[in-house]
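Data availability excerpt. The first of two example chains:
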Amino acid sequence: MEKPKHHIFVCCSFRGREIKGKCIKKNSIDLIPYIVEELADRGMNAMVSSAGCFNRCDDGPVVVIYPQGYWYGGVEGEDQVDEILDALEEGRSEEKYLIA
């Protein structure tokens, strides 16, 4: 497998073995298959991983992209994901969702 250009983490609110945060309650886990499919459709060299709690519950659902270090909040659906991936393809961040 070729090293991915981007690694996208989706907060799934795990703290240890427990689900405690708000992201999972806002269906963050449902974003993962959509992101994976969208990356494939776009031919983007990226991988997606679920992540434990990022401790930014008030900003959730939270999506983090490395190596760029983009932290996005309020990513609640396909429209937001599309805007973020459009920006990533263009080599920039999507400012309206940045939190950190």
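And the second chain:
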Amino acid sequence: MALEQTKSNREIETFRRFISASRIRIDPATIEKREPPEPDILCTHLEEGPLAFELVEICDSNRAKFMATVTEGGVYYMRTADPSAKIIRKKLRRKYQTDYPVELLCYTDGRVITPANVILPTTRPYLASWESIFRCAWLLRRGHVYRVWSAD
């Protein structure tokens, strides 16, 4: 239960950073965490009304394990790879239930070394070719927001 609460708090904080960095006109007072099968966040866009967001962290599991166990000092070796395609494919397979438009927010939180100029061209083809509920996808990386893909 504590782990789920930590994840929920982290997702809300990530979403707040996203709306601040992107300047998307979302009322911060309307942000609410939702439970599956709904998308992660429900909020109100000031012009469009209710809007849902599904969040996914682009995270290299090897790096996450490494960061959880490493101590300061010393020399370390770690293998890493870009996990973004695998993560996006998994997210696109999921089913969501909502009556509102849904957007996908991908974010990095220090547990991947893949730069945005690799994540963007890697994920776009999947988002563009896959039948999904998402109308738009974003990437939040190091305080910068990128529009990855849009259905229109």
